Amino acid sequence: MHRITRDHIVYSLDKTHPPVLEIDPGDVVCLETYDARTGSIQSNADLLEHPHPKGSNPATGPILVRGAEPGDSLVVTIQRIVLADQGYLAVKAGEGLLAHRAKKHATRMIPIRDGMAIFSDRIRFPTRPMVGVIGTAPAGEGVPTGLMGPHGGNLDNRFVGEGAKVHLPVNVRGALLGIGDIHGAMGDGEISFSGLEICAEVTARVELVKGRPLRRPRIETADAWMTTGDDLDLTQAARIAADEMADLLQERLHVSFEEAYMLITAAVDVQISQCCEPGVFPATARAVVSKALLGENT
Question: In this predicted model, what pLDDT tens digit does every residue of 24-72 receive, in sequence order?
């Protein structure tokens, strides 16, 4: 198994970044990741009142996958996520879905004990580890890791946890995969602009599918497939995810668009992944279909 330390991070997914590791398809990699503020938040007194000087949501990598060429796709299986012993939750004044009520900055360090996040002496909740940023380098200009797009990036989808398979397009030779921005827990919407941000170690298997192009990331869990969408307009993000789902249903079930449309409205859930500030910061959405509908064993 390969290992990459969190000394090797990038703040964009970009074809100009030299790879820190070259692997063969099927290899397993353990990546040390930083939290969204690169470890700079260490106490309740550390506020998010100014941007990190290098950027937000660093990704560990990039990783070059030998043999990957444009028109192929990667399948990245998240095998394990090990959280650090504490992370943080935060509020930024005037930001997030409830910006109109967020009058001041606030930070709270959150210890992690035996799979529980300790919010206070009387409030605790289970951790739900997930990968926030996962993507490949786009063919054009690089994209900051705080943003998402057809290449992946800051998907902020809570289902990208242990056991999930993330299907990513390969846009450049070697793919140049990056993974980071782990959350100890995040509710759908991530409405304050912050999940439970935390350093972690992520173990992932990286496989290559030759000659299978993808327009956008797809996420596979034990019992479902998900398509993704993102846009400044939450409605448009949902539309993109649903449009991608129509294509998936047509591919898998060999049905017409009209039949796929009927199935989407009856048996597919279109959900919000992240809507922390629609119209200001891109929102992300997902469309979810059961594998049972597709005739796949679960």
Answer: 999 999 999 999 999 999 999 999 998 887 889 999 999 999 999 999 9
If one looks up domain 2-42+55-217 in CATH, what number appears? Answer: 2.60.120.580
- Quick count: other Cβ atoms within 10 Å of Cβ 94? 12
Mean of the per-residue pLDDT values of the chain? 97
CA nearest to 190, candidates 298, 296, 95: 95
User: In sequence order, which residues have a C-beta less than 8 Å from that of residue 135 and are 6 or more positions away?
Assistant: 13, 59, 143, 145, 148, 149, 151, 152, 153, 155, 168, 177, 178, 217
Cβ within 8 Å of residue 147, ≥6 positions away: 153, 154, 282
pLDDT (tens digit, 9 = 90+) per residue, 109-161?
999 999 999 999 999 999 999 999 999 999 999 999 999 999 999 999 999 99
Residue 222 has pLDDT above 90, yes or no: yes
Angle CA(202)–CA(203)–CA(208) in degrees, nearest 5? Answer: 120
Contact 57, 146 (CB under 8 A): yes
pTM above 0.90, yes or no: yes
Are 250 and 188 in contact by the 8 Å Cβ rule? The answer is no
Neighbours of 125 (CB within 10 A): 14
* C-alpha to C-alpha distances, 99 to 155, 193, 235, nearest whole angstrom: 22, 10, 20
Among the CATH numbers 3.20.20.30, 3.40.30.10, 3.10.28.20, 1.10.3300.10, which is that of 223-290?
3.10.28.20
Dist. CA 180–CA 132, nearest whole Å: 6
Residue positions counted in the chain: 298
Strands (E), 35-164: 59-65, 73-83, 86-91, 106-113, 116-118, 124-126, 130-135, 143-144, 148-149, 152-154
Three-class SS of residue 123?
coil
Q: How many helices (H) and strands (E) does the chain have?
A: 2, 22
